[in-house]
Design a protein that fits this description.
Elements (H helix, E strand, L loop, with lengths): L5 H16 L7 H11 L2 H7 L7 H9 L5 H6 L12 H5 L11 H19 L12 H7 L6 H7 L4 H12 L17 H16 L1
Helix pairs in contact: 1-2, 2-4, 2-8, 3-10, 7-8, 7-11
Length: about 200
Amino acid sequence: MLMYDESFVAVMTATTNEATALGAHAYGSEHVLLGLLASDDELTQKVVRAFPGLTTASVRDAVLGAVDDAPHLARLGLTAHDPAVTVPAEREGSGTRPRTKHTPELQAALNRATVKWGHLRRTRAVPNEGKVSSAVLWLGVLEPSARVPRLLDAMGIDPDDVRTAVLSALVPPGAAVPMWPAEVPAGPITRLLHRVLGRTIVDG
């Protein structure tokens, strides 16, 4: 049976709160990032120490301003606040939890990250924790297919540097920081974790 540590549970609770406050219709990687920053666990504190601009307020503003889409919208003569672009509930917040599961981009990113994370644990490149922690959520939202890397780029923050900070925080001081692997095959345990993560975003 998969077990979650306190950091994971706290992030999922904060993710729900952030998505609800933004009036989101589904959970995206941006909401998980906000949940990570809002929960402010030990790992997150180590990560953001090197990125003073990476705060809950700055990311929330970036999400509301759709800074990752701004260049594309500008070419169309639009902004993120135009009625044709923004759904009213997403501007103001509906106060209701998203009814659907996470977005396809978040599901795919979490799937890829858990496979890679499992590979690092099996090869002992990182400590083999007994419980699922917020680390897999950090690594998931930083997958290139997710929205978060585009948001961070638009904010002037290199997502690869953030990933390196996450991995560095997971190994003992002075230990080599592992390389984030390319795609690796998912085993049965990882496929189970994929299904559980899909439920946890909704039930948390």
